[in-house]
Amino acid sequence: MSDATLPAVAAAPRFRLNLPLGVAIGVFWILLMLAIAVLADVISPYAYTALDLRNRLSPPVGMGGVWAHPLGTDELGRDVLSRLIYSIRMSLLIAFGATIIGAVFGTTMGFLAAHFRGWVEQAVLALVDFSASLPFLILALAVLAFFGNSLSLFIVLLGFHAWERYARIARGLAISAGAQGYAAAVRQLGAGPLRVYGRHILPNIASTLIVSMTLAFPEIILLESGLSFLGLGVQPPSTSLGNMVGYGREYLTRAPWILLAPAFTIITTTLAVSMVGDWLRDRLDPTLR
Amino acid sequence: MLRFLATRLARALITIVMVVTFAFVVLRLSGDPALLIMSVDAPPEAIAAFRASWGLDDPLWQQYLKYFTAILHGDLGRSMRDGRDAIALVAERIPATLALTLPALAIKLSIGIPSGIYAALHRNSLTDRVVMGLAVLGFTVPSFVLGLLLVLVFAVQLGWLPSGGQDSWRHAILPVITLGAGGAAVLARFTRSAMLEVLGQPYIRTASAKGVPWRAVVRNHALPNAAIPTVTIIGFMVGSLIAGAVVVESVFSWPGVGRLLVVAVANRDLAVVQCILLLVAGTMVASNLVVDLLYGALDPRLRQARAGGAA
Amino acid sequence: MRDAGLLEAKDLVRRYSMRQGLLGRITEVTAVAGVSLALERGRTLGLVGESGCGKSTTGRMVLGLEVPDAGGVSFQGKPMPKPGTPAWRAMRARMQMVFQDPLGALDRRMTIAEQIAEPLVIHAIGNASERAARVESLLRDVGLRADQGSRYPHELSGGQRQRVVLARALATEPALLVCDEPISALDISIQAQVMNLLVELQAARGMAILFISHDLRAVRQVSDRVAVMYLGTIVEEGSPDALLHDPRHPYTRALVSAIPHPGKQGERIVLQGDPPNPAARPTGCAFHPRCPLASVQCRSETPTLRDDGADRRVACHHPHASPIAEAA
């Protein structure tokens, strides 16, 4: 049997699952959230717009509520648990979509800058500077003011939140790979740029990019919930975590559970992803600190 | 030194120009400004008059130049809602925002930095873990949640503090705390890692091996070197003061620039949005400039590099 | 005695302009200032010089990796295409480079079998099983075992890695191999092995080799001809043994005298003056600030590479006279 045809073994150091307790809980929570998001239609007791006018503002089960609505209801009798489930799906969808958009766009720009150098690089760097010069929230608000908001626009907008980080990483690593490294060697073998970037540079910087994505993910959740809270993000009838907090605010005194459930979810999910991201970064790429 | 200043100023100006261009592009891209600013069922003559007065029929580059010169002259348009000058509207809100953000900044600096330093110096001790735990909470809890929770506890349940509006100094307590907490957490974490990185350097070990007392080592070697990256973060925080205020002012119904921005966005009051955009960009650029200058003063390596002529 | 010329480089010049800072002056660095060389099938030309003398840049221009500012390179009679073009890429199958740092030249994430097979994939040579067979035979040719193909670069030693790089370079059976300091990063004990391997491979495959190094001894071992470079020009050219026993250019003499040799007579020549700076070329002969024989002519007139007896060329106004000529 020719050894040249053996399947490739992963080059990463053997992945021993020595998770610290906090990280393990974080991973579990993330998986739970993902499961909820995927299975929302199946596990949600009600539709998120379903009204139950007899049970308006009913508190959660522990505080005098009914089992039919374990987490209580809002002012229109909508079940908080169901809305929470769908909000998780919406917020995660937005966060994933935005993170991936940002990573793809940023990496591509970084590669373009590294490959073409010259004025292309200067243009990309100027854009990076510009991006870093305005707090993203303000930029987002300006765009939302000018363009209004549809969901796809919103996701794309959020996608640009951290693109310059990926661009910087991609550009830096591509340049150092290109100079006297394997990229130069492969180019010298006659490989076209697509092969060089796609089969060589990208896999090698993937772990750094992934860590960056994991660290940016919670930021997007926070951004989205903030904007939705202000009424400028996800619009009704769709519901997201920030959205729910925004509605719940009016009933802060009478029915705090309306906003506490989504608020708690935001906090724990962000915390979980941050902890896992930090741990990933420490293990895979201490240079990102 | 002069060359350094010149290049930094040039970059600052370019950034501002880019922001202005961005606002212009976005404004034009988002549809016919005439239809946006006037309502859809305005009479066609009014729309035509509007277009003429705004020069919307001119070629694009001409519009851009007009737009640019208008801004240079301080004319940023009028608010749609009450027809007042956008600049005036924004300017009168600035003191309210400052009343929140400046004390918050003080909190961030006075709590964040010392705790970060302390945590770094007593690494892995109980205090370190507590501080870091709190810090993590600080940036995973979004400001609006924190604000609402504080209101829930202190205003609703305990009734100690008011929950909104700007009537007395007591009204400022909760918003200031909300604003300051998140930033203090970020700063603590950052200062700690900057200090840890510096403390791990060989020259620190050398200094203490030479017999220099630890306090002096920290004071003379560790702190100044850790200050450099910390200054950058502080600069960023100063530059994004308004951004931070946006959500908090909305939670507490505080009539500042942030709240104005949210309302303007909801109403698509483009002149006001533009104005605030430029204000924020200007603040950010100015604060970055100051940071760059401080950098030059703090980091002798940069001074030398400049003297040698390398960029 | 000249075989069919494989590659000819004439009067290559390469300059870089560097700008000091955003608003600073622009300095022009002349890395290569007029180099001509010819490579023949089955023969090795050694290029020696210290760091900064332009030998690496020359190697890159020979391969077409960089475009010379003046002069040209022709391969098998045809001019070299511009780098990055499909024609240039197709030509890579005919000429390859071996780098100094074998670990840097290999992708950490791919097995060495995959990397050796890669040039075959790029140039669409053979099908999967033919390639696998080829990889196996290449591994054997460079002295590695076939089962080592499934290893990763970081699992091999430095010498083994350089062998892998060689195997990859030979995959498409190139006619020309440019080796830029191929052994400098290796342990001394391994260096000899790798050099022997090179000689064997050349004998078996008949390719031309341009061997670039700062180590005169190593160059002598593998080359049929040696050229010595200083500050972007060739100062002396000849057969290795003759050069070592009878160096005629003052720089070559200094280089040769620095080679440690048990029981050697004669003093070591230590050059005075500043190390060569390509950003500030001296007038006339580039070597004159450090040359013990420098004269007024040397300061003003640049010497050209001229024949000095059989099979030797020197660029000097006062070359060391050969003993035979002296005796005559």
UniProtKB/TrEMBL annotation, chain B:
Coiled-coil residue windows: none
Keywords from the UniProt entry: Cell membrane, Membrane, Transmembrane, Transmembrane helix, Transport
Transmembrane spans: 12-31, 98-121, 133-160, 172-190, 226-251, 271-295
Main location: membrane
A Pfam family of this chain: BPD_transp_1_N
Domain named ABC transmembrane type-1: residues: 94-295
Protein name as it appears in the record: ABC transporter permease
Keyword Transmembrane tagged: yes
Membrane topology: Multi-pass membrane protein
UniProt organism field: Roseomonas alba
Family statement drawn from the similarity comment of this UniProt entry: Belongs to the binding-protein-dependent transport system permease family.
Family matches, as SUPFAM superfamilies: MetI-like
Alphabetized InterPro entries for the sequence: BPD_transp_1_N, MetI-like, MetI-like_sf
Localization terms from the record: Cell membrane
